[in-house]
Every structure is written in C-alpha cells, then in structure tokens.
Amino acid sequence: xxxxxxxxxxxxxxxxxxxxxxxxxxxxxxxxxxxxxxxxxxxxxxxxxxxxxxxxxxxxxxxxxxxxxxxxxxxxxxxxxxxxxxxxxxxxxxxxxxxxxxxxxxxxxxxxxxxxxxxxxxxxxxxxxxxxxxxxxxxxxxxxxxxxxxxxxxxxxxxxxxxxxxxxxxxxxxxxxxxxxxxxxxxxxxxxxxxxxxxxxxxxxxxxxxxxxxxxxxxxxxxxxxxxxxxxxxxxxxxxxxxxxxxxxxxxxxxxxxxxxxxxxxxxxxxxxxxxxxxxxxxxxxxxxxxxxxxxxxxxxxxxxxxxxxxxxxxxxxxxxxxxxxxxxxxxxxxxxxxxxxxxxxxxxxxxxxxxxxxxxxxxxxxxxxxxxxxxxxxxxxxxxxxxxxxxxxxxxxxxxxxxxxxxxxxxxxxxxxxxxxxxxxxxxxxxxxxxxxxxxxxxxxxxxxxxxxxxxxxxxxxxxxxxxxxxxxxxxxxxxxxxxxxxxxxxxxxxxxxxxxxxxxxxxxxx
Length: 512
Known about the structure:
Layout: H1 2-26, E1 39-44, H2 59-68, E2 73-75, E3 82-84, E4 87-94, E5 97-102, H3 116-127, E6 142-149, E7 152-157, H4 164-168, H5 178-183, E8 196-202, E9 206-211, E10 224-229, H6 233-242, E11 247-249, H7 253-260, E12 265-280, H8 290-299, H9 302-307, E13 313-314, H10 340-349, E14 356-362, H11 365-380, E15 384-390, H12 392-400, E16 406-411, H13 419-426, H14 442-452, H15 457-474, E17 477-490, E18 493-494, E19 497-498, E20 504-505, E21 510-511
Parallel strand pairs: 1-10, 1-11, 14-15, 14-16
Antiparallel strand pairs: 2-3, 4-5, 5-7, 6-7, 8-9, 9-10, 11-17, 12-16, 12-17, 13-17, 18-21, 19-20
Helix pairs in contact: 8-10, 13-14, 14-15
C-alpha cells in the first residue's frame, strides 16, 4: 500500500514538473507563443465594396486588399521614399520607357507564377475600358506594357510620366493572379502574392484572411486576420475595451478620450496624407455658380470643426495637404475665410435666400458629423439645408452617377503625390468616374497634365502648386480638415505599421 502511494505521489510530481516546463515554453513573446492566439480582429464601421484592386477604389477595401495583394513598388512609411517590392529594380532607357526587373520565384496564392506576363495582364485589365477600373487614371498615360523576358516588363508611356513609380505603389495597382481573374471573380475571391490569403467574406458581417504559409518574404506570425463590420463606432470601441477586437483605426475625436483611458490600449497618431472635404456637383445649379460656392465657403466655420477633432485633424485651405508632394504653404490660407456676414451678403446679392440644398453623406461617424455642422451653419446664413445619408457602397454608386448636390468625401492620397490627387479627382478626363465633382477647367487641366508629363520633380511641384491654387480659388472643394491618421490597438499587438496614408499592414504583427 505504501509503495503504491509513493508511486502515485512520484507520478503527480513528474506530471506537475512537465506541465511547468510546458508552460514556460509557450511564453515565447514576439515569436508567437501558444499562450496568446496569433490572430487579430479589426473593427470597421463599413464593409468592403470588394476585394479586387482593379475593380474597387475605397479605403475600407484597400486595407484588406493590401494584406492579400502586393504592388511592384511601395512607399516607405517613415521616409516616404518609393522602394521596390515585387520589383527588383528599374531603369529608364528614355523618358517614355520604364524597364522593370521583377523578383523571381514568387508564387500567387493559387500556386501560379508571378512574372512579367502577370504584370502585363493586370495592367491591361486595369486599362480596359470595358472593365472600367475606378482608378484607371493611375495608368492613363501608359501606351503599352510589353514582356521582355519572364521577369522583365517594359512600360511605355505616351508622354513622360513623372508620377509613374508613385502610381505603381498605389494599392489599386496591385498585381493579380491572371488565372484567378479569368476563372473566377477576384472581387469576391481574391488571389494575390501577399502574406495573407482569402478565407471568406460574409457581406455586412466580416472578412476573414489566413496566413499564407508559402509567402515569398517569410510567412507572417498571425494565423488569422478578421475584419469585423460594426455599424456603430461606439460599439467598436466597446469591443476593443473587452478584447473582442484588438484593433480599430480612424478614431473619431468623440471617442478619443475613452480610448486613451484604456490601460491596455496603445493609441498611435501621425500627420497624414488624407483630406476630407465638402464638394459641389458642378453640373447642377446653383452649385456650378462660383458666388454660391463662395457663400458656402464663408458660411462654414472649419476651424470650429477642426477644434472638435482634438488633434486628429488640421485646418488648411489647400486641397493638397502638407504631407503630399506639391504642397505649398501659399495655399494654406488661399481660400475663403469664415465670415457669416459676407456669406449673407453674397446670398442676398445673388437671390440665394431660402435655396434648398441637400447634403449627401455616407452614414459613417465623421461624415455625418461634418454634415450636421455644415447644415447648422448653412441654415444660419439663410439656406434651407437638409441631410441625406446612405450606406457606404450605395453612397459611392450615387456620387459616381452624379445624383447629388453637395457631398462630403475624403481622399487618402495613397500615392502621396499631388498629381495623383488632382488628376483623378478634378481633371475633366475623369468626369463620370473618379471626378465626382464633375469639375471642368481648361487652365487647371493643362497644369495638371504638365505636372504628369514632366519628369523634373521641381518643375512638377511648381505645376501642381499652380493647379492647386486655381482649384482652391474656384472653391470646387472646401477642405474640412487634413487628416491625422490614427490607430488604437491592444498592447499585446506588436509590429503594426501605420502609414501616413492611413493604410496599415499586418505582415510583421505578432501577439505577445
């Protein structure tokens, strides 16, 4: 009996010792220990529109696309310099030719080869008029894409194209699997070369990605990435607090103090490239009347709005922001200052009293806040303003079709290049696509064209500055604020890269 009891005790001691050893081994910190699930859930108030870089053009979709796909070049978030990613190197034999060497031995997530043929296919689809890519303007100057050999692609432009590398670093210029695109729908079942693979998309609820074990640059530590759609930002904040989600971005000012008070949460902010603005449909009266736009500009107290952002935005009249190539401080106060009496005077002189205006806004917190403030201020100067709100996808379709009077929009400036802000948004080439304001100004167009067809960066900068001032004085857009990008995440989340464009990447993220 004594022997049996002694044996039992010895076995228990051995089991406990082994359990202790096992427990110490799982605490592996940044290497992805088993004690902390290597997964992350991100909450957003809007669903993706789609998951194809060719067929979408919105920030929510871009953040998921950036985890699945990759571009030939990428902008370093610290230096803002453009560096090769899928590309190995490039050279320009002449001002209209870009010869790009590609990295070798990279596979798409469906097992097919990444090569020059894939790049050619992607960009030709991007430029296909029948496909009507929303951001086709990125590559509009391209005349041809040629395969020199398996890992060399030659891009020829119609004219010199200074921002080409910036354009090729844009998420929408990500390279897709030709096989996946031809045999299926990459907008709902995406296939790229990136660190995470598509798992599922339940519309209105979530998108799930999983680790790409065969990722060419080293598999990520995270096993699973989930984007959770949470219509109310306050709910997303509560989920962060309880740990149901580990990451939120674009923190609204009204929730900032609550998030900052959480002991186990890190809040990161940095000056960003996004701009958020009030815009006019230039094909409808009286919104196509400069005097009406001036009256609205004088009526809107943008500084009061920015003050409410608690450091998450800055006031600046320039359409191109301080973090974007081509910015000039001369544009910072070139717009129309807040002056209620001046607004009333213009309204009276032009017979605008009682003019009914509809402010269209996507049903997200920041845009609705802008709409409510502007509605109150326009009412104060004698205009009859009402708000119409829409779900994000419907809003994008509606503004694309020109079915609005005034609206609130944003532009992340993902290339951080002023030409690639002014051209898609305000050049007449893009009326009916990305130029939702339907702005048409020949002098402006000429300057923007020159800024895109000159390789000398200092001359490009001057052309961008001149075009920017024209648009500011035309009051086609009234910048509500230039963004300070933000993210809030649990302190056990390490390695998150927040870009000044507001985009982020999870390749190097671990949970400790």
